Amino acid sequence: MKRSRWLRARRAVFLLAIACTFLCSHCIAQAPRELRVLAASDLQPVMPALAAAYEKATGIHLNVSFGSSATLATQILNGESADLFLAADFSFPEKVVAANHADTSAPIAYARGALVLWARKDSPLQPLTQTTLQEAKFSRLAIANPDHAPYGRAAVAALTWMKLYDQLKPQLVVAENIAQTAQFVESGNAQLGLLSLTLASSDHFQQIGSFIRIPRTAYPEIRQCAVVMRSSTHRAEAHAFLDWLRSPAIQQNLAKYGLEPAR
Question: Which domains does the chain have, with CATH numbers?
Answer without folding.
Answer: 33-112+224-257 (3.40.190.10), 113-218 (3.40.190.10)
